[in-house]
Design brief:
This protein has one domain. It is 17% helix and 28% strand. It contains three helices and nine strands. The longest helix is centred in the first third of the chain and has 10 residues. The radius of gyration is 15 Å and the shape is globular. The two termini are 17 Å apart.
C-alpha cells in the first residue's frame, strides 16, 4: 500500500471560534485535495484542521478546539512562521529525513507553512514516494 493512502483522523473546525466540528478519516492525498479546494475571501474564514480527536468539553469562550479537549493525537503537525528557512529548503529537509508528509503554505504564502505527517513510524518518504508539497499553485511535487 502507498503510505500516502493510509488514513489519518482529521478534525475540521469551520473557523477560529471552533464552536462546531466535523471529522473524517483521510489519506494525505485526500487531505491535500481538501487543502487545495478550501476557499474563503479572507484567510481567517478558512476552515481549521487538526490531526486529533476532540471531546465535547468547551472552553470558557465556547470553543471545542483547546488542549484540554483533545482526547487523542492522530498525526504530527508542524507550523512554521519564520522567514529564516525557505519553503523549498524545508521541503527538502522533510524529504531527506524520510518523512511522508504534506507540506503547504497559507493563502498569503510566505513565510507561514504547515507540515502534516501520519503518526506511523514506518511511513517514510522512500516507501511513499516522497513528501508532497502544496504551494500557491495546485501542483504537488514528490521527491525520492
Amino acid at each position: 500500500m502507498n503510505d500516502f493512502n493510509a488514513a489519518v483522523h482529521v478534525t475540521f473546525f469551520k473557523d477560529y471560534a471552533a464552536n462546531t466540528l466535523t471529522t473524517d478519516n483521510l489519506s494525505l492525498i485526500e487531505l491535500r485535495e481538501r487543502v487545495l479546494n478550501a476557499s474563503a475571501r479572507e484567510k481567517g474564514k478558512l476552515p481549521w484542521l487538526k490531526l486529533a480527536l476532540f471531546g465535547n468539553r468547551r472552553s470558557i469562550n465556547g470553543s471545542l478546539r483547546h488542549d484540554a479537549n483533545v482526547t487523542e493525537v492522530t498525526g504530527i503537525e508542524l507550523d512554521y512562521d519564520d522567514e529564516s528557512v525557505a519553503f523549498d529548503d524545508a521541503f527538502k529537509a522533510v524529504s531527506e529525513m524520510g518523512i511522508a508528509a504534506l507540506v503547504y503554505t497559507s493563502p498569503s504564502h510566505r513565510p507561514w507553512r504547515r507540515t502534516l505527517a501520519h503518526p506511523r513510524s514506518d511511513l517514510t518518504a522512500a516507501s511513499a514516494g516522497g513528501p508532497c508539497q502544496v504551494g500557491r499553485s495546485p501542483q504537488w511535487r514528490t521527491e525520492n
